[in-house]
Amino acid sequence: MLPSFSSPLETIPSMRSRRSDDEEENSVYGTLRALVRVEARRLYLDRALHLCASQNADAANFSIYIHTEPGFIFDESTTRSPFFYGRQLNNSVKVMWGESSMIEAERLLIGAALEDPANQRFVLLSDSCVPLYNFSYIYDYVMSSPRSFVDSFLDMKEGRYNPKMSPVIPKDKWRKGSQWITLVRRHAEDVADDENIFSVFKTFCKRRPPVDPSKGEQNIKLQKQHNCIPDEHYVQTLLAMTDLEDEVERRTLTYTLWNQSTTETEGKAWHPVTFNYANTSPQQIKEIKGIDHVYYETELRTEWCRTNSTFVSCFLFARKFSEDAAMRLLNEGIVGSFDATATATAVIDNHS
């Protein structure tokens, strides 16, 4: 799903193309666009997203774009929130995890949202995300910063870089990070307009086939292939290739808890933890909201979270939540209300 934030049309200068002459870097006005990538045939956290959007939110300040299975329609029978009625893309593609179709879906969402010149910020979410704050706080947080929020770091351990990507993508520009990104308009345009980097990813960044016992010794050869997950590298590498990293807060706004586990098909690997009813509590959400920095081991870098030079909590959203966990959050009011703290005041004060 892609939520986007927009600016009043009268503040947008005339445009010769999608890229405006005045990017309005420091403007706090705009529409937030939510881009939602749905992995199932149901947006089961629609109530949580609906609650966020309906609290203190002017409908002119946001819109939602959804990529789902081709032919699937959001209406009264498939979602409980009118914010999602008819918001699915008409040109969606079949998405397979670990394939280039993942980033193709993201590019389609961004391209659709860019058609509206009022859209100035683009937030990619999944169908298992919940907002940690109400809409007005999220809007102020994102719109007060002239930067994109893209988790990005050097990938030095896993060997996902394929030397065949060179010379189009040199190894020193190879990056890794969370796929849950928030982009300013000019960076969204770079993603939507790119063809060269995307083409290389389609050809050389592919998930390694899982171990198949029926293939015997052939598995040894298969497991020597590069195991590349496209949506964990694409935007990060594209921004590095276009020398835009200085314009980015190199962190994501979506919290994920990772757990290293062993499976028959992948061996030892990191997987996102799914929060269920039992381990979703006010204390858990409070702890997530209290995170104020992220440490990147491969770069020995500590990223202190800030927006527009003001120190803030790192995360606005969290994942992955099961349906019963999301219902507990709503029923107990854990994500329903927000007490404006000094941090929130500091962000709002930067608007003046």
UniProtKB/TrEMBL annotation:
Any Pfam family matching the protein: Branch
Cellular component aspect of the GO annotation: membrane
Keyword Metal-binding: no
UniProt membrane topology term: Single-pass type II membrane protein
Alphabetically ordered keywords of this record: Glycoprotein, Glycosyltransferase, Membrane, Transferase
Keyword Glycoprotein: yes
Superkingdom of source: Eukaryota
GO molecular function terms noted in the UniProt entry: glycosyltransferase activity
Residues covered by region (Disordered): 1-23
Locations listed in the record: Membrane
PANTHER family in the cross-refs: CORE-2/I-BRANCHING BETA-1,6-N-ACETYLGLUCOSAMINYLTRANSFERASE FAMILY PROTEIN-RELATED (PTHR31042), OS01G0695200 PROTEIN (PTHR31042:SF70)
Protein name: Uncharacterized protein LOC104594065 isoform X2
UniProt organism field: Nelumbo nucifera
Gene: LOC104594065
